[in-house]
C-alpha cells in the first residue's frame, strides 16, 4: 500500500477513520482538520520533484517508442504507467489516458493510446492506485483514499507533460473511458490546464454506479450491511465526480455514450450530461458499453481539431 504523508491526504485519512473506524498511521489527524470544502483534498504542489524513471519496452509501435514510466506523486506515492513518444521532432500535443475498471495503463495504451500516438500525440497512460496493487475497489475506506490519490496522480501527470521540452503545454488533452471517463469529470473539475477532453461511456461516478436513481444500493454495495453501506456512501459522496461537473473549465469537451449500455443506464448518462457545461458536445450511439468504430473516428477527429493531432 502506498504511504500517504501530505496534509491533504491526512485530511482524507481522518475522514476514513471517522466514518469507518479504520486503523492507520493517519489516526493522529484531528476531526477539525477535515476541510469543509472537499476541493481542498485535491490541492497539490506543481513544482514538487517528479523523480521520473523510464524504461524502454521491447515492443514498440510503428512510428513511436513505448516506455514503462514511474513518477512521484503527492504523499510520497509513486505512479506507474506507460508513455508513448512519436518519433517526430518539435513540440507535440499530448494526451493523458485513464483506463476503465478493471483495467491497467498497459491495456489502455494498447487499446486506445497507441492510436493517438500514431496521430502525433505524446500519450501518458497511468495506473489507478488500486490497479497498481492488482486489486479492484473494495467498498471500504480505501476507496475514498484511492480516488483522491488518483486525482493527485493525474494532476502530477499534467506537471510531468508541461515540463517536457517536446510537449506543447497548451495542447494537452484528457481521454478516459468508463471508470476513466467518470473520474475525468472529477479531474477536470479541479484541473484547469487541460485544453480538450473526451469522456466515453461515463456515468456520474462510483456512487452513481452502485445505486439506483432513488438512492437504493445495487451490486456489490447492496451486499454490505446497512451501516457499512452508509459509511461508504458518506465517504464517497463528497468526492463523487458529478458534483464537480459544474466546475469544469476545459474549453472543449466531448462525451460519448451508448443507448444500450449494459453498465451505464441511459438515465445515469443523461444526468451527467445535464450536469456538464452547456458547451459540451454529446454523442449517442446505438451500442452497448463498447462503442462502434465511428465513435473512435469521432474521437480522433475531435482531437485533431482541438489539440492538433493528425485526423
Automatic annotation (TrEMBL):
List the lineage, top down. Bacteria, Pseudomonadati, Gemmatimonadota, Gemmatimonadia, Gemmatimonadales
What organism is recorded for this protein?
Gemmatimonas aurantiaca
Alphabetically sorted, this entry's keywords are: Signal
Q: Which Pfam families match?
A: AXE1, Peptidase_S9
GO BP field = proteolysis
Q: Where is the signal peptide?
A: 1-28
The segment(s) forming the Acetyl xylan esterase domain are 52-128
**What region holds the Peptidase S9 prolyl oligopeptidase catalytic domain?**
150-290
| InterPro entries (alphabetical) | AB_hydrolase_fold, AXE1_dom, FrsA_esterase, Peptidase_S9_cat
Signal among keywords: yes
Q: Name the source's superkingdom.
A: Bacteria
Q: What is this protein called?
A: Uncharacterized protein
Q: Does the keyword Lyase apply?
A: no
Per its record, what are the GO molecular function terms?
Answer: serine-type peptidase activity
Amino acid at each position: 500500500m502506498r504511504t500517504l504523508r501530505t496534509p491533504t491526504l491526512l485530511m482524507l485519512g481522518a475522514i476514513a477513520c471517522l466514518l469507518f473506524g479504520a486503523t492507520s498511521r493517519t489516526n493522529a489527524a484531528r476531526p477539525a482538520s477535515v476541510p469543509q470544502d472537499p476541493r481542498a483534498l485535491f490541492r497539490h504542489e506543481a513544482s514538487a520533484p517528479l523523480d521520473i524513471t523510464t524504461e524502454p519496452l521491447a515492443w514498440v509501435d510503428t512510428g513511436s517508442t513505448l516506455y514503462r514510466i514511474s513518477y512521484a506523486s503527492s504523499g510520497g506515492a509513486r505512479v506507474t504507467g506507460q508513455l508513448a513518444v512519436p518519433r517526430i521532432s518539435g513540440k507535440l500535443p499530448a494526451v493523458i489516458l485513464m483506463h476503465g475498471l478493471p483495467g491497467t495503463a498497459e491495456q489502455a495504451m494498447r487499446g486506445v493510446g497507441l492510436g493517438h500516438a500514431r496521430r502525433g500525440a505524446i500519450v501518458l497512460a497511468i495506473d489507478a492506485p488500486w490497479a497498481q496493487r492488482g486489486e479492484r475497489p473494495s467498498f471500504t475506506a480505501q476507496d475514498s483514499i484511492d480516488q483522491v490519490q488518483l486525482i493527485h496522480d493525474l494532476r502530477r501527470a499534467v506537471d510531468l507533460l508541461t515540463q517536457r521540452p517536446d510537449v506543447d503545454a497548451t495542447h494537452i488533452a484528457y481521454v478516459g473511458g468508463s471508470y476513466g471517463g467518470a473520474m475525468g469529470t472529477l479531474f477536470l473539475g479541479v484541473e484547469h490546464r487541460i485544453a480538450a477532453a473526451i469522456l466515453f461511456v461515463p456515468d456520474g461516478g462510483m456512487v452513481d454506479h452502485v445505486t439506483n436513481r432513488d438512492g437504493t444500493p445495487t451490486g456489490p454495495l447492496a451486499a454490505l450491511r446497512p451501516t457499512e453501506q452508509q459509511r461508504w456512501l458518506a465517504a464517497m459522496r463528497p468526492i463523487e465526480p458529478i458534483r464537480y461537473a459544474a466546475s469544469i473549465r476545459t474549453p472543449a469537451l466531448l462525451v460519448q455514450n451508448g443507448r444500450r449500455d449494459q453498465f451505464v443506464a441511459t438515465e445515469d448518462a443523461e444526468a451527467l450530461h445535464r450536469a456538464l457545461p452547456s458547451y459540451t458536445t454529446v454523442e449517442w450511439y446505438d451500442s452497448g458499453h463498447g462503442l462502434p468504430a465511428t465513435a473512435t473516428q469521432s474521437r480522433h477527429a475531435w482531437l485533431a481539431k482541438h489539440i492538433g493531432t493528425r485526423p
